[in-house]
Amino acid sequence: xxxxxxxxxxxxxxxxxxxxxxxxxxxxxxxxxxxxxxxxxxxxxxxxxxxxxxxxxxxxxxxxxxxxxxxxxxxxxxxxxxxxxxxxxxxxxxxxxxxxxxxxxxxxxxxxxxxxxxxxxxxxxxxxxxxxxxxxxxxxxxxxxxxxxxxxxxxxxxxxxxxxxxxxxxxxxxxxxxxxxxxxxxxxxxxxxxxxxxxxxxxxxxxxxxxxxxxxxxxxxxxxxxxxxxxxxxxxxxxxxxxxxxxxxxxxxxxxxxxxxxxxxxxxxxxxxxxxxxxxxxxxxx
Length: 286
What we know:
The chain has one domain (2-285). Helix content is 74%, strand content 0%. The chain is built from 14 helices and no strands. Helix 3 (39-58) packs antiparallel against helix 4 (62-90), helix 7 (121-132) crosses helix 13 and helix 8 (134-147) packs parallel to helix 12. It is globular.
């Protein structure tokens, strides 16, 4: 615990990533000031968020130290919600049609429609639960690092996860898409049906996410792979559990009609790039 209580004395690598992202979003908001709803409030929230980071670095005491460790995993949630405001305001078109055409060219079929052949309520129920536990699964790895008092491992994992989230948000801005369950709805022959929790979990996720163009790259695939990598740093048994979870997650993204397969491939590729390149960047920024 003594390591947590010590003042940081300098900005951590994750601070620099998040402050850089905040600066980029402030420039974007300023550039599209008239188009962005509540632009002044959004700009103020970014400035306030950055100020809290500075205080966490400079202000000694255990509350600021704990905040300094955990805030990246909280800030990325705000940044995600911000996408539901920025993308519709800034981007006037979406890439759904292009992504669906790529999928069709690869498979000579629409994967979400083809998967109706194996559709079954128990499988749908199970995969929706897997998909819905995405955020708890990512956070649980962080909690395990924390409980082991591996604070250095925790800080690197927070850096990796925060970077993964923020890079995916930039991808959403560049390639805005809502997913096959909207574009290909009329091509599906039967709706997805679960057993007990499917409808509740899906409607809850829709309510939390609002109208978000969050398909490309697949953040669920990217972050599940990053969490799987982090879990293997804790123990082999824990890692094997996350390998199974990640396989189910990747399949769920397409089976549940949330993603095109090209989204999944992009998310997996991005995860591998981050796993191999982030250690050097972390050392440099530290």
